Amino acid sequence: MLAAWGAAGPLLPQIGAARRAAHRPVAGYLLVDSLLPQPGSRTREDLRAAQLGDEAAERDAAPPARESPPEFYTEQLPMAADWPDAPCGYLNTGAGPAACARLARMRGWPVLDRSEAAPRTGGAGAAALADDLLELVGML
């Protein structure tokens, strides 16, 4: 299983392709509060515009939790043409784009929505996240 959070989600197809090339196929992909990989979207900026629409403008109005260099959003993203090659699931903790959880549902992926759950912090938060990921694996 490969799991990616946030901005790492669009990189999953290429990571999966590298694993297949090494004769280590992937059993499944888990995306957590992430943009979805999408053929034809060459940069994270393209993905944000295509997947978030108006939500992107709202999120951009708020100060970012962590600054990234501008090149981060405009760098070329690798894409594997035959992705997904294994089941995919999406975990929405409420910290990421809600539009992407809807897109994952439209793709027929199982979505575990924890956006209404009380905020989790510290070790209990990590344990709850691990439990959510295991539940999502069971849904694949």
UniProtKB/TrEMBL annotation:
<feature type="region of interest" description="Disordered">
    <location>
        <begin position="36"/>
        <end position="71"/>
    </location>
</feature>
<protein>
    <submittedName>
        <fullName>Uncharacterized protein</fullName>
    </submittedName>
</protein>
